[in-house]
Amino acid sequence: MWEKLLFFDRRIIFVFIAIAVWVPFLTQLELPPGQTNPRTQALYDAIENLPPRTPVMVAFDYGPSGMPEVHPMAKALTRHILSRNLRLLGVALALTGPPMCQDAFSSVSQDLDKQEGVDWVNLGYKPQPVAVITQIGEDIRRAFPEDAQERAIDELPVMAGIHNYDDIGLVIDLATGNTPGAWIVYAHGPYKVKVAAGVTGVMATDYYPFLQTGQMIGMLNGLKGAAEYEELINHRDLGTLGMGSQSVAHLLIILFVTLGNVGYFAFTRRR
Amino acid sequence: MPAAAATSSTIFGLSTEIIGIWVAALLTLAIYSFLYADNPVYKVAEHIFVGISAAYGAVILYYQALLPKLVKPLIIPLIDRVWHPELADATSPRYTLLVPMFLGLLIFSRFVPKYDWLSRWPIAFVMGLYAGLSIPRSVQEIILKQMHGTMLPLLPRGANGGYDFLTGFSNLLLVMGVICTLAYFYFSARHEGLLGRVSRVGVWFLMVAFGAGFGNTVMARISLLIGRVQFLLYDWLPTIGIHLGGPGMG
Amino acid sequence: MRLHIPIGLGFLAGAFMIVQFFVPHPSFEESYKALMDWTMIIGAFALVLGLQSLFRTHIDKIRRRRQGYGYSFVALISFAVMFMVGIVHGAKPGSLFDWLFMNVQVPLEATIFSLLAFFIASAAYRTFRARTPEATILLLTAVVVMLGRVPIGEFIYAQVPEATEWIMSVPTVAAKRGIMFGVALGVIATSLRILLGIERSHLGGGR
Questions:
Q1: Do A253 and A228 reside in the same domain of the chain?
Q2: Quick one: A157 and A265 in the same domain?
């Protein structure tokens, strides 16, 4: 019997995972995200405390592979930043970043009646992250002479008076790779600009040392981070809607691990 | 999610948005067919991805990197100067950009075996530049700041002025953990006696970190699946009249 | 000669960066900005070079009629279509290129990565065993964190999110910091070796 429990077609596990994720959606099981993580709260508070029209730079350093986790964060942050009447600058150090930026900014700004070029701009992609981050510190116009629509950035009202990190209130890196480290070392370090991040669960543990030293002021961790942020800004979206499935799938995997161990020890003892 | 489809043009009476959602849904299902077994439908979808993503990268690199940083400031003004000298007000070319253009083009010498050694120049230049940039910054921003973050009070005072033993315990654990982990990675002496015991504790700390990493990774992987399910539920099914909640709905 | 010029070039670029760090004189400012620009441009050329492996693999597969070479046609045609659309119609938001990205690349890439949800569940069931005390620590931490990162964890036991945050902020930071010191020292040592021309692996072999 234990043998059967240990060695069966792995597709049976696949079916269980699919059920665990689908059923909460089909039954419309809604779970509020619960306690807000202090790191999420810290990022929210930092944005709340910026004076109106302060520029916030959001780096879109992710692509389709990280979209389910990071894109809800991008939308929630965009909503918060624009509704606080702050200026929003999007940059991308990942090739796939510019469409992510465009999608988040344009969909939210339609809701809030904000204007491209006046309230927000998508500055597009540039290669070599460290060089781009450093160049923004020296002269943002040198790093990004045009926006993603090929308009000279000097012609955009949103860019008025912005020359380097001295004029930017906060940098938020939304990432699936190691770019938050580069923003910390090459933007916060030399230019003292405040840095925060929104990262996938896979990377979250890597950045806690920087949160402890204060080199990073806040962080959103995975879909739960996005859901917590949606709760803070009082706008439930894909993050919150995913929490039911996320909960059930985690319980299922814990059950798998338990069963796997029980089966393994019972099987090896019998042998 | 497919916001680009917001341009509401139509083909054969169908909006490009609806066509886009159907293309995306069919490709999603094609990839999932792999879960049953590897098959030609999955293989085709996978190879479409390989081709499309490479071309996407090349095109974006041209429009967002080479065009604004090299073509517009150097090449177009240079062409204007040579072929249209009558355009007196044309911007003057930034001649200094000839250097990175030359170095960049040298990368392609790899394709000519006789001159492939020339491709070392741009690589050496960029590597040297980053080496020089990273040495002082790594010392300052990683080693010194992280060391500073480890110098923690072991008997801190709480908000009410009394000792905060709980924080003190956490601080002690953090300091011990860093020392023990470093001991584990110290390979210049045999891990015996005191060093052996300390590095064993280091392994426990590493296991906690890896466990936390694994827990977070499970969360991340499940979220990726949730993202696709949300697309099928909230974008695709409504196109055939099935509405199962979604953002902005009860 | 073929090795000395690049080593010299690397040394000069790196030495300038170090001098600039310690003596941030205004007269260096323009050179510093120019060097950052140059790096971005060279980086763009280097990324274009990445395409060669795609072409080499698939053209080679077709030429040798290796098993499944038909799929290589699919890859090359997809490349050609996307590339032509981008070059002819442009790549601005709302363009056909953008439509193809959002409705072909996004679902394909996102779905391929989402397969990992199934594989991690299968791996957790088959290989995640509490065989040793160390493995048990790993497993227990993972379970606590898995519960602490979903709302339902709180319903089971109210303190789970706090316990998770403590695990992430204290023992995990300790271990990660230990690793980070090692990595940073490694980066510094390798950077110095590159500058001084001792490390030459990035330049390939040869004289």
A1: no
A2: no
Instruction: Tell me the C-alpha distance between B151 and A139, whole Å.
Output: 36
Residues of chain C in contact with residue B146, where contact means CB-CB under 8 angstroms, are 177, 180-181, 184
From C94, C110, C142, residue closest to B215, measured CB to CB: C142
Inspect the interface and report whether the beta carbons of B245 and A250 lie closer than 8 Å: no
B85's CB contacts (< 8 A; 6+ apart) are none
The nearest CA of chain C is from the CA of B244 a distance in Å of: 20
Binning chain C into helix, strand and coil, the percentages to the nearest 5 are 80, 0, 20
The number of folded domains in chain A is 2
ipTM of the predicted structure? 0.93
Both A17 and A53 in one domain: the answer is no
What's the whole-model pTM score?
Answer: 0.94
B76 Cα to chain C: minimum distance (Å): 16
Contacts of C165 in chain A (CB under 8 A): 37-38
Domain membership of residue A259 as a residue range: 2-28+248-270
Distance CA C57, CA A251 (A): 43
Residue of chain A minimizing CA distance to C120: A253
Task: Specify whether A23 is located in the same domain as A95.
Answer: no
If asked whether residues A140 and A212 sit together in one domain, one would say yes
Is the predicted pLDDT of residue B4 greater than 50, yes or no?
no
Q: Is the pLDDT of residue A8 over 80?
A: no
Q: Which residues of C touch B225 (CB under 8 A)?
A: 114, 117-118
Residues in B touching C95 (Cβ below 8 Å): 4
* Neighboring chain A residues of C152 at a CB cutoff of 8 Å: 31, 247-248, 250-251
Q: Is residue A242, in this structure, part of any structural domain at all? A: no
Q: Which of B226, B222, B234, B238 is nearest to B1 (CA)?
A: B234
B204-240 tens-digit pLDDT: 999 999 999 999 999 999 999 999 999 999 999 999 8
Residues of B in contact with A99 (CB under 8 A): 4
User: Does residue A226 sit within a domain?
Assistant: yes
Q: Are residues A45 and A24 both part of a single domain? A: no
Strands (E), chain B: 10-11, 14-15
Q: Is C149 in the A-facing interface, judged by CB distances under 8 Å?
A: yes
Strands A55-61 and B10-11: unpaired
Judgement on whether residues A78 and A201 belong to the same structural domain of the protein: yes
- Domain of residue A150, CATH code: 3.40.50.620
- Chain position carrying tokens 């690793």: C179
Among candidates C146, C171, C188 on the partner chain, residue whose Cβ is nearest the Cβ of B177: C171
Residue A243 domain-assigned (yes or no): no
CB contact residues (below 8 A), chain B span 192-221, against chain A: 209, 212-213, 216-220
Does a structural domain hold residue A241? Answer: no
DSSP assignment of B165-225, as one string? Answer: HHHHHHHHHHHHHHHHHHHHT--SS-S-HHHHHHHHHHHHHHHHHHHHHHHHHHHHHHHHH
Residues A186 and A263 in one domain: no
The per-residue pLDDT for B158 is 84
Whether the CB of A251 is below 8 Å from some CB of chain C: the reply is: yes
Q: Do C54 and B3 touch (CB under 8 A)?
A: no
B249: pLDDT confidence band, cut at 50, 70 and 90? low
- To the nearest whole Å, the CA of A18 is away from the closest chain B CA by 9
H helix intervals, C24-132: 26-49, 51-63, 69-89, 96-100, 106-127
